[in-house]
Amino acid sequence: MGHVNNASYLKWVQDAVVGHWRAFAPAQAIADHVWVATNHNITYRRPTFLNDPVIAHVILERVQGARAFYETIIKRGEDVLAEVKSSWCCLDAATLRPARLARELVEKFLPASVD
């Protein structure tokens, strides 16, 4: 049918969320932590076709313990193609166990609301 499949949306979300983390987190925090997705909920608004130029806008809604909750809005120009709610778990890179982020680090992402 000429449109992208679900895996494309998930790749865009993953790239956007990981890019958001890398843009704001200090190098040591990036080295010490990894993120895994635990849930994605996609609401499709318009079809996205092969070779469409898309932009993913990331909004970190909240951090709770070792989990972060994001909304990613995928757009083509001004058209909203999909809205994706996702949750992610922060892991200690050495032990691969859930890791709570330090308050100071969370404040870099959410200056007004920290649990």
Structure commentary:
The protein has one domain: Hotdog Thioesterase (Thiol Ester Dehydrase, Chain A, Roll). By secondary structure, it is α+β, with helices and mostly antiparallel strands. Helix content is 28%, strand content 40%. Strand 3 and strand 4 form a beta hairpin. The mean pLDDT is 91. A 4-stranded antiparallel β-sheet has the order 1-4-3-2. It is built from 3 helices and 4 strands.
CATH superfamily caption:
Hotdog Thioesterase
CATH architecture: Roll
Question: Biggest sheet, in brief?
Answer: 4 strands, antiparallel
What is the fold named in CATH at topology level?
Answer: Thiol Ester Dehydrase, Chain A
Mean pLDDT: 91
In short:
By secondary structure, the protein is of the alpha+beta class. The chain has helices at residues 6-24, 27-32, 103-109; strands at 33-44, 55-64, 67-76, 79-92.
List keywords for this structure.
single chain; 115 residues; alpha+beta; Thiol Ester Dehydrase, Chain A; 28% helix; 40% strand; elongated
Q: What order do the helices and strands come in, and which of them pair?
A:
Layout: H1 6-24, H2 27-32, E1 33-44, E2 55-64, E3 67-76, E4 79-92, H3 103-109
